[in-house]
Specification:
The chain is α/β, with parallel strands linked by helices. The chain folds into 4 domains: about 190 residues, ATP-grasp fold, A domain (Dna Ligase, domain 1), CATH 3.30.1490.20; about 140 residues, ATP-grasp fold, B domain (D-amino Acid Aminotransferase, Chain A, domain 1, 2-Layer Sandwich); about 120 residues, Phosphohistidine domain (Glucose Oxidase, domain 1, 3-Layer(bba) Sandwich); about 325 residues, Phosphoenolpyruvate-binding domains (TIM Barrel). Helices cover about 35% and strands about 20% of the residues. It has 30 helices and 30 strands. Strand 20 and strand 21 form a beta hairpin. The protein is elongated, with a radius of gyration of 31 Å. The termini are far apart. The C terminus is likely disordered.
């Protein structure tokens, strides 16, 4: 075949439209240099051998043998592994034409001109013509060689890169994506090596790689060369940055900073690279400072904007100069291809023998072998995809629940821990079965269905089911705002595409239990612990995390920030911690600080706890975390909600206490709301309205206190009814009084999710918002839309008598 054209090109002379000449990786690097370097994005200088160089290498007998081998593979006469090995040997041993050798040598010499090193250290990377494409990245399929010095060494690395076009993994990947092996060619890029072996390197994604949330940059970082991160050798540090705030120099929009173990480092030694253990002091500290994190986030965002799609960016920090560099950029190929305009509904397509039934949580169906566990310490026995069956759950169960296909419990209702966590994990759960742990002990494989309303059923065997896709572009608009109840920060990003009007309830106690896992006073006052096991556990935590109080503030701030990011720029109501004493007592160190109360539901909780000198150190940490997220990170959409505020005196005390910790009502637009969950909040609503910016009805506690029912008492479960006329009258009175005082009212209980008629009632009395779990968001929105259509202009100052539901 005839070969013409240039064999070597400087990277600055190529761009994104030159994939056919220099492959995807080199074309992208050239594009960055030519288009973004003026904006400050640094890319190491270098050159690329072209596809013409590859064609020149294989011209004649080599190409004939290559095609023959591929034809044998295509006909099934030779296995792929044998073909791949033969083709690699063919390319490694092929004679390199003198003009190609001279062109590579000249380009390498030019790269060293004007620097302290006439023979610079370089990275030699493969760049295939089918690579870094929007629908197939080919990341890591061909070889890279780092720390190469001298013309001879560059030529050796160049040959090995060429041969890596036919690694087993590269050929398998091309087969999977439908690329013809004979049509793919290889370019090789040679760049100055950034001495990240003396600093750090890693990857930045311009979209959350798990959920597709498109307003964050996720940066992974580890000490040494970036191969440790890209190759999965380490658990890297992670930094999550909220991109809408990047242009505000007054903010530090780093939502979370997570120290990874960084067990090893890839460094240079004797003109080669080696993997060595990381020193203990390096493993315990972050590998990037805030300034570098923000610079990388800005660059990554600029790159994504330039390409018009989410990007996967590799970066390196030079340990000699301290400068950051981008060393690769490719389109992100997973989340960018997700359909964000639809959700799925589940329907059983078969019948089976009913084993147990209970309350349905969510609307999904799951199936798997039963695994009965009695304590979270047995979690290692659960195989991923099994159905977890247990008596009840608490925060210690969350890591086990994440790996289950479905959840079944003996006890628990719609407001229990198992219900809240299962909803946010998107797991079907059947709760309060009474006998699940005994009746399912020998059940084998079961199907857990929550697809038929409030009753969930566990069926014998694996039944078929269907999934209906629902168009999210057809969500009706409503006068009544529909917000989300969110508690698990790690699951918050899953719900961003719903387009909710905000977050109406972010539970601080769930953030503390799941993101911290230790009693707040144990972290604030560890010297007061007396149980040896607690002291030992806290000592280990201190050794791993450093200052315990800062650990809590960091973790809580990160959790709150993740939830606020989903709501931005709409309001995110963060309810201050409302654990009861029996719930706090079960946390690490909790038994030292919690009283033994006969009825914790009516005990040391809510506002009374915040004003107690005993709780003051823990309250200070909670406030510090919220203040940081508002002032430093920038989430001024966060409003504070005070739960279980019994009296006006408590209201005044809490507002004063918040102010002493920098959370001054009205400052930086800070709103402070109150949970309306006691009859006192309703009866004195006009006076609470002078102290707070809004009311959020907690229908569970309000029902409990209006009807005199213990909502945790299974004997009384049948009488617990949020639509009882007495409760409805209280809600109507509150809405009317609050609106007369110019204050908005929302409801964050489960009732609108469970009862369409209750949701319609709320819209009819002119409530400003409802906040529901993500799984019921669409159903509630549609009910509200229908109700508002039939009642287009509710009288928000109506004094009509209570309506029957």
């Amino acid at each position: 075949m005839a070969v013409g054209g240039e064999l070597v090109l400087p990277l600055h002379a190529v761009g994104r439209h030159d994939v056919g000449r220099v492959g995807g990786k080199n074309a992208s690097l050239g594009e960055l240099i030519s288009s973004l370097s003026a904006g400050g994005v640094r890319v190491p200088d270098g050159f690329a051998t072209t596809v013409d160089a590859f064609r020149l290498l294989i011209e004649g007998d080599v190409e004939a043998e290559l095609l023959r081998r591929l034809d044998e593979l295509r006909c099934g006469r030779v296995p792929m592994e044998e073909t791949a090995a033969a083709l690699r040997e063919l390319l490694v041993s092929a004679p390199v034409p003198p003009e190609l050798t001279e062109a590579i040598a000249a380009a390498y010499t030019e790269l060293g001109r004007g620097s302290d090193e006439s023979e610079p250290l370089v990275a030699v990377r493969s760049s295939a013509t089918a690579e870094d494409l929007p629908d197939a990245s080919f990341a890591g399929q061909q070889e890279t060689f780092l720390g190469v010095r001298g013309v001879d060494a560059v030529l050796v690395a160049w040959r090995r890169c060429i041969a890596s076009l036919f690694t087993d993994r590269a050929m398998a990947y091309r087969d999977e994506h439908g690329f013809d092996h004979a049509e793919v060619a290889l370019s090789v890029g040679v760049q100055r090596l950034i001495r990240s072996d003396l600093a750090s390197a890693g990857v930045a994604f311009t979209v959350d790689p798990e959920t597709g949330f498109d307003r964050v940059v996720l940066i992974s970082s580890a000490w040494g060369l970036g191969e440790s991160v890209v190759g999965g050798l380490v658990q890297p540090d992670e930094f999550l940055v909220f991109t809408p705030f990047l242009d505000d120099d007054e903010l530090i929009p780093i939502m979370t900073r997570t120290i990874g173990e960084k067990q090893v480092q890839v460094i240079r030694a004797d003109d080669t690279t080696v993997t060595v253990p990381s020193p203990p002091e390096d493993r315990r500290r972050l590998s990037l400072d805030d300034e570098d994190v923000l610079q990388l986030a800005r660059w990554a965002t600029s790159i994504a904007q330039h390409y018009g799609c989410p990007m996967d960016v590799e970066w390196a920090k030079d340990g000699i100069t301290g400068d950051l560099y981008i060393v690769q950029a490719r389109p992100e190929t997973v989340q960018s291809r997700r359909d964000l305009n639809s959700i799925h509904r589940y329907h059983l397509a078969g019948k089976g023998r009913e084993l147990v039934r209970g309350l349905a949580v969510g609307d999904r169906i799951g199936a798997g072998p039963v695994r009965v566990l009695h304590h979270p310490d047995q979690g290692h026995l659960l195989v991923d995809g099994e159905v977890l069956v247990t008596a009840m759950t608490d925060p210690d169960w969350v890591p086990v629940m994440r790996r289950a296909a479905a959840i079944v419990t003996d006890h628990g209702g719609r407001t229990s821990h198992a219900a809240i966590v299962s909803r946010e994990l998107g797991l079907p759960a059947v709760l309060g079965t009474g006998t699940g742990t005994s009746d399912l002990a020998d059940a084998g494989t079961v199907t857990v269905s929550c697809a038929d309303g409030e009753v969930g059923v566990v069926y014998d065997g694996e039944l078929p089911w269907e999934v209906e896709e629902i168009d999210l572009t057809d969500i009706p608009s409503t006068r009544t705002k529909v917000n989300l109840n969110l508690a698990d920060p790690s699951a918050a990003f899953r719900h961003w595409q719903l387009g909710a009007d905000g977050v109406g309830l972010a539970r601080m106690e769930f953030i503390i239990s799941q993101y911290v896992g230790v009693h707040p006073l144990a972290l604030a006052c560890p010297e007061r612990l007396h149980r040896p096991a607690d002291v030992e556990a806290l000592d280990q935590l201190r050794a791993d995390k450093g200052d315990l109080a800062r650990f809590m503030v960091d973790r809580v701030a990160g959790g709150v920030a993740r939830i606020a990011a989903v709501a931005w720029p709409n309001r995110c109501l963060v309810r201050l911690s409302d654990f009861k004493s029996n719930e706090y007592a079960g946390m690490l160190g909790g038994s030292t600080f919690e009283p033994d109360e006969e009825n914790p539901m009516l005990g040391w909780r809510g506002a009374s706890r915040y004003l107690d000198p005993e709780w003051a150190p823990a309250f200070a940490l909670e406030c510090q975390a919220i203040d940081r997220v508002r002032r430093e990170v920038g989430f001024t959409n966060i409003a504070i909600m005070i739960p279980f505020c019994r009296t006006l005196q408590e209201a005044d005390g809490v507002l004063a206490a918040l102010a002493t910790h920098g959370l001054v009502r009205g400052e930086l637009g800070l709103e402070v709301w109150v949970m309306a969950e006691l009859p006192a909040n309703v009866i004195l609503a006009d006076r609470f309205a002078t102290r707070f910016d809004g009311f959020s009805i907690g229908s569970n506690d309000l029902t409990q206190l209006v009807l005199g029912l213990d909502r945790d008492n299974s004997r009384l479960a049948g009488s617990f009814d949020e639509t009882d006329p007495a409760v409805v009258a209280m809600i109507e009175l509150l809405v009317r009084t609050a609106h007369d005082a110019g204050r908005p009212v929302g409801l964050c209980g489960q009732a609108p999710s469970n009862s369409p008629s209750f949701a319609a009632f709320l819209a009819g009395i002119g409530i400003d918002s409802v906040s529901v779990t993500p799984d019921s968001y669409l159903a509630v929105r549609r009910v509200l839309a229908d109700s508002e259509l039939s009642n287009p202009d509710p009288d928000r100052h109506s004094r009509h008598p209570t309506r029957e539901l």
